[in-house]
């Protein structure tokens, strides 16, 4: 029996896609590989790749399977900084580099229990991709939707999420939900700012004035899709060390991120 279990474990490991690097959406987000990038970890920050809806113009220019489109926002700088934060603030064994995940890569998505998706208001999932994502989530996977603002992007997000879950409601998380208290006690009334918008004097893009922390629950009440709408966790990680990004926003984004990861890995 032990030999059989070992063989099963080896087959799972072999099924994982190797680490690879794609082009970032933002030139300043490209960073050198950390020296320990080949060292495995029990937790890996996975990032969902997806085709971009055509109405979002230059965000979708080029071949999305090679990076440089909407899915690669805050990538890889934000992901690697957040990995370093998880190493400092939790006892998780965390790989220093992220993992881009393409839903079209066979069963690879099932190897990554926590996935973040940036700019999901711009995604244009195929029916097959949506079905794969739905199956992944119903099997216990966790999706964090981040870095999107305003009426237009919310409509694009809903259009894609309705392909994934046509009938499951999106709820506003109550203040006492474990996502706000798993490690840190945080308030759902606070907003994690967008760095580009801050240059114009406001923390939000478009008409995304009010932050919303939402979720889709599974049949047991577990949050399987966390939705940071009118918030930008990725920017709080990517720009945390920059003087022009407020310390309060960076602190909130890092703590919210830690809560999401620990919740996902324990619920």
Number of helices: 7
The CATH superfamily title: Domain of unknown function DUF4159
How far the N terminus sits from the C terminus, by CA atoms, comes to 29 Å
- Kindly name the structural category: alpha/beta
Helical content class: 25-40%
Mean pLDDT equals 94
Shape: globular
CATH topology: Rossmann fold
Beta-sheet strand percentage?
5-15%
By CATH, the architecture is named: 3-Layer(aba) Sandwich
Order of helices and strands: HEHEEHEHEHEEHH
Q: How many discrete domains?
A: 1
What is the topology?
Blueprint: H1 2-15, E1 46-49, H2 77-89, E2 99-102, E3 114-118, H3 127-138, E4 142-148, H4 150-164, E5 171-172, H5 195-198, E6 212-217, E7 223-229, H6 233-238, H7 247-266
Parallel strand pairs: 1-2, 1-3, 3-4, 4-7
Antiparallel strand pairs: 5-6, 6-7
Helix pairs in contact: 3-4
């Amino acid at each position: 029996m032990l030999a059989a279990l070992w063989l099963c474990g080896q087959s799972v490991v072999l099924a994982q896609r190797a680490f690879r690097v794609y082009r970032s959406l933002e030139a300043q987000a490209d960073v050198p590989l950390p020296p320990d990038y080949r060292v495995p970890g029990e937790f890996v920050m996975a990032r969902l790749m997806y085709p971009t809806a055509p109405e979002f113009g230059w965000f979708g220019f080029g071949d999305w399977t090679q990076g440089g489109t909407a899915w690669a926002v805050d990538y890889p700088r934000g992901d690697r900084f957040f990995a370093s934060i998880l190493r400092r603030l939790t006892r998780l064994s965390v790989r220093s580099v992220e993992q881009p995940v393409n839903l079209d890569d066979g069963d690879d998505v099932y190897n990554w229990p926590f996935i973040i998706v940036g700019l999901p208001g711009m995604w244009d999932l195929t029916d097959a991709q949506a079905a794969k994502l739905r199956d992944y989530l119903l099997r216990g996977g966790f999706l964090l939707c981040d870095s999107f603002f305003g009426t237009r992007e919310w409509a694009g997000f809903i259009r894609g999420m309705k392909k994934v879950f046509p009938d499951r409601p999106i709820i506003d998380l109550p203040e006492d939900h474990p996502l706000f208290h798993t490690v840190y006690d945080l308030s759902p009334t606070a907003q994690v700012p967008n760095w580009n918008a801050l240059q114009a004097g406001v923390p939000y893009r478009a008409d995304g004035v009010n932050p919303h922390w939402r979720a889709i629950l599974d049949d047991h009440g577990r949050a399987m899709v966390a939705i940071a709408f009118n918030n930008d966790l990725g920017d709080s990680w990517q720009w945390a060390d920059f003087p022009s990004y407020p310390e309060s926003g960076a602190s909130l984004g890092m703590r919210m991120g830690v809560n999401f990861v620990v919740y996902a890995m324990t619920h």
